[in-house]
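Supplementary Methods S3. Complex input for the heme C-bound model.
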Amino acid sequence: MMKHRIFLCVLAGLGLSAFTLPAPDPAAAPVFFRQAAAGGTETICGFKGGNPTHGAEIYAKTCVSCHGADGKGAIPGTPDFTKKGGVLSHPHTALEDHIKNGFQSPGSPMPMPARGGNTALSDRDIRDVHAYLHKAFGCG
Ligand code: HEC
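Predicted complex, serialized as structure tokens:
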């Protein structure tokens, strides 16, 4: 009886893994090809190693609601990325740190959430979206 149940569990497990394991491959392939087709990394405003095309996708998903498609800020407290001498003129390491860890400047009505509030973003994603900011909105 016990053996039978274990056997069933193993069968169910195999069935499940047959269902779930091969899935990531075909699913991952288009993402890989999309990124490859989208081009590699670029140096923009002296910032190296980011892929702005992938960054644009991240911006559209995670950042646009607060920062706006035009980068000028969609809600009070967000900076205008297109402003000369504005936040995009800050050192790359500071920008990267602020996007990763979030921050609030003195007197600001609202903080910038760490990773734009999307904890699924990898450091690679942050680098790509950082590159996109410069590509789309300039060097500050
Ligand atoms: C919930 C709203 C919100 C989201 C989502 C958001 N931000 Fe922000 N962001 C802010 C606010 C507010 C500030 C200004 C904070 C301050 O000055 O106190 C800010 C500031 C910034 C700055 C200026 C950094 C500096 O050094 O001054 C950058 C760059 C930035 N955000 C990038 C991003 C990126 C990239 C994303 C998406 C991954 C993102 N933000 C998502 C609200 C948001």
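The chain has a mean pLDDT of 83. Residues 105 and 124 are 25 Å apart (CA to CA).
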